[in-house]
User: What shape does this take?
Amino acid sequence: MNGRNVPVLIALRETANIEHPTSNIEHRTGNTSPRPSPQSGEGDPFVAEMVEQVRVLRLVPGDGKDGTNGWRYVVEIWREQAQGGAQRGRAGLANTRPTKVEWERVESRVPLRLGRPLPLIPFVFHGARHSLPDVGVMPLSDLIYLNLDHYRLDADFKHGLHYTALPTAWVAGFEKTGTLTIGSRAAWVSENEKATAGFLEFSGDGLGTFERAIERDERQMAVLGTQVLENQIRVAETATAIMLRQAGENSVLANIATSVSESLTQVMRWVYWWNSTEALPEMVTDGQALIELNTDFGVTGMQSGELAAVVKAWQDRAISQDSMLELFRKREILPEGRSNEDEVELIEQQKREDAKRTLTTDEDG
Assistant: This one.
């Protein structure tokens, strides 16, 4: 449409809460009494029923007279109907599934902006790496699978410890009718000279296999990005070493932050367009609506040498004052929420106060 690809149909599956569920047949016959509730079996107007429905967002051809280039945005609600027209919710009419299921449109509306239908579907897709409708791979998917395997191995390991870690007493040659008590105040005595006793203790490499498998999963999870299970090296590290060690993690976070920035920018452009007089949302520019998340995840600020180099570049007219202040802001030298104009005003105010203080000192002298 108009030289760009736009979504024309979006279906969202959702759950609706119906306060007084009545079927279409009951409406047509005039019987609008509440359906018997699944809990009590009696008509209860205070028991809500949850039904599944599909919210359909679509662009349909218009008459071309509403200023939407022949297209308008329509919202439809579709609900699944059992055979005979009665709605089938999660609570259900009965436990038996109907042999034939149909969908019925129960609601249709045309949202208006400035008295006119919308020319596009106000919907923003969002993913971990992009803002497209394509389904992508989660950044932590590999880590999730390893974590599940780690949980299973740990459960098997703890199960084995439960049965093998505690020694079990055993006796031979004792009478079966007696009760043998373990403790420092109890002694086992038998008249059978061949009687013997001991403890059963676990021996072998069965549990060691689980331990090595658990350690292997922990090392792999640490490599994939988590630092929770990794043995941290308790030695001093330079700022450069820390940045290099965290470079992989920061790159993933930067991709996510960039994707979130794009999605939020699209949302804010829709909001701005809704409250403006622009004809189409793409006419809203970055100067009107733009969101950029910080992608600097480093733990260090600007070093003294870098600070001096930036100031010298500004003094030599290699960069502007705004560029210098923006660099200071990104490296967390300037406080959050202070604009370049506020910083320049504070600098000029400090100069005036210094000049006034110097003049007062000269007069006193």
The first helix runs from residue 24 to 29. The beta strands are 9-18, 49-61, 71-81, 102-109, 112-113, 116-117, 168-172, 196-200. Residues 21-29, 91-95, 226-235 have pLDDT under 50 and may be disordered.
